[in-house]
Write a structure and sequence with these properties.
The chain has a 3-stranded parallel β-sheet, with helices on both faces. It has a single domain (5-102), classed as 3-Layer(aba) Sandwich (Ribose 5-phosphate Isomerase B, Chain: A), CATH 3.40.1400.10. It has helices spanning 18-24, 46-57, 71-82, 90-102; strands spanning 10-14, 32-35, 61-65. The longest helix is centred in the last third of the chain and has 13 residues, at 90-102. 21% of the residues are buried. The chain has 4 helices and 3 strands, in the order βαβαβαα. By secondary structure, it is an alpha/beta fold. Helix 2 (46-57) links the parallel strand 2 and strand 3 (61-65). The protein is 42% helix and 13% strand.
Length: 104
């Protein structure tokens, strides 16, 4: 079974996840979002950032900062991220189309 390119998902793992996301985002149709657990005083609910990356930007690659989360948390985050929907809002669809054209 072959996935439609828009349905394909990927996961990259690195120390902070930042460099990996930067490299991944150089590839056409990749929209990598970084996840790492931030201090509660900085970000109340880090998973809301993850949800927004899916809902607003249709993230299809998850870049995990391994220095900042446990293996168990990483597994939980991956399962949640895989099930998060894209909003299909017209302005968000247009933004993604613009990003895709920029890579052509």
């Amino acid at each position: 079974m072959s996935l439609h390119p828009n349905e394909a998902k990927g996961i990259v793992i690195g120390g902070s996840g930042q460099g990996e996301a930067m490299v991944a985002n150089r590839y056409h149709r990749v929209r990598a979002a970084v996840y790492y657990r931030a201090a509660p005083s900085i970000v109340e609910d880090p998973q809301s950032i993850l949800a927004l990356s899916c809902a607003h930007n249709d993230s299809n690659v998850l870049s995990i900062g391994a220095r900042f989360i446990t293996d168990e948390e990483a597994q939980t985050v991956v399962k949640e991220w895989l099930g998060m929907p894209f909003s299909q809002d017209e302005r968000r669809v247009r933004r993604i189309a613009t990003m895709d054209r920029a890579h052509e």
